[in-house]
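Revision sheet: structure tokens.
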Amino acid sequence: MIPKIRYGTRSTYGLVRYLFGAGKRDEHTDQHLVASWNDYAPDPGRNPHHTIAQLAAQLDQPVKALGDRAPEKTFWHCSVRADPGDRHLDDADWAAIARRIVRAVGIAPEGDTAACRWVAVRHAEDHIHIAATLVRQDGRRADLKFDKRKAQAEARQIEKDYGLRQLNPGDGTAAKNPTSQERFKAERTGRDETPRETLREAVRQALAGAADEAEFFTRLKDKGLRIKPTLGSSGDILGYAVALPGDRNAKGEPIWFAGSTLAADLSLPRIRRRLTGGAPDQDAPPRAGGARTNCSAPARGRRAASGAAERAVVLLDSDGESGAAAQLVGIGEVLDAVAQTSPAATRAELVAAARSFERATRSHIRAEHADARAMRSAARGIIQAGGALGRGEDGGATAMLLSTLVLAAIAAARWHAARGHAQQAAASRQTAQHLRAAYQQAAASPLQALHAHGRALPEGTRSSYETTIRAALPHDLPRTDSEAQHDALAATLAQAEHAGHDPKALLQQAVGMRELDSAENVNDVLVWRLRRLADLPAHPGPIFPLPKAGTGRTAPPARRPGAHRAPPSVPRPDTPDPRNRPPRR
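Predicted:
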């Protein structure tokens, strides 16, 4: 149940006329009162002898009595809407709900016969409107401190009492939702979303990994947005506003949105604190190091971001509150960067994930932005590297990163839940769902290749790796009845050993990096950790020679101390995957 509160400075007559009218699109039906301050107020909807003017005049009587001493804001308007999945509520239910709301916020306290005048109007099945004047009948002004917070708290209790869907309590840090007028206009103009929502996402994406204020504004211009700076008397820029091309009001003027009205953390002062406190490295896209330096720039950027995200997850579990809050901001920027640069197959889910996680980046805990430098640098590297392909090394590196980001979203949900941030925790869980869907798409090809490699291993080799895997995994993890679940993991260990690593030690290192209880698929998580730690290609391809049938050789021969190892007869790991070459121009 969602209460929305607004204040008005015009005559109450206009509000009452709207509530009993046909609506802007004839959506109002059976308009009538369900409750009022005295239970016998005029009802223009059900009584043909009553008029809108009569009802408005009775509501306004205490305000008119004050004359010039009347307050600037004269009426209070609250819409209360049930969730689409809630059960049917009749007039008696809505009347009781209206009385509880006006009592909770201070419009009509229990037993106060001189309280404000109010009415509750129902003109649809799923909601009511409460209209009240802000002058009490004894001439005093109503005390409505924290009315929005009180209305939300009462709505949560109403949900419990009536068996309705229970929404998460807010904390005042959410971005402002589009107004009804903005939604109606978007529908009329054929937009999928309101300009406010489009602009909020565009500004957030422009901020992802930006090095300074100049680059941030340049990115906004590159996105085709109108930009209007707010200048002080000294000529300094104090703020900014943005508008969509073609979005104009009735006078033909652009409709501007200040950054602070899109979201509190998108105001220019907040953006400046983020840019100066956690300035990212401005070098070329980060190198993943070692054997993979010759892979494509998008793949390198994603591999580097995977390592940064792993460290962010550890910090979320162990760091102080301000440092952990900064990691959440950094994770949000990486999500925005990946969403902008991913192929169409995964883009929709990644955009949805970034939008969901936006809510998780804001709370009353102030972030220490210097702690987010690594994640902001990772986001910058992804943006600078440009668009990634959905196949080959690019696709595998995307899967590697998404696997880690799923764990980051789960860690964020756990962090917020421990602090009572219900909305942020729910947003983090929703983010994890979108990321899992994108991961399944990105990981399908590389995991299929790895499973094929694993199944092709000789029985003795496979059995040896299976023993290593079962010994390394924590005993309290769920066990599988089928060893086929370890195909990709066994193949990765074989490839790591071929590259000169100790498979047992490497697996123990991967397992010990952090807990695995939150992983939906432990094998997948370990596969990507191992491939990053061993610097193996994200998309396997023909990485190592399979033993020839009947030779009895199940692993590469061990090197004698001091012996020189001959180069393998197959392409080395640093050989670019021919399937990942850029298209010819």
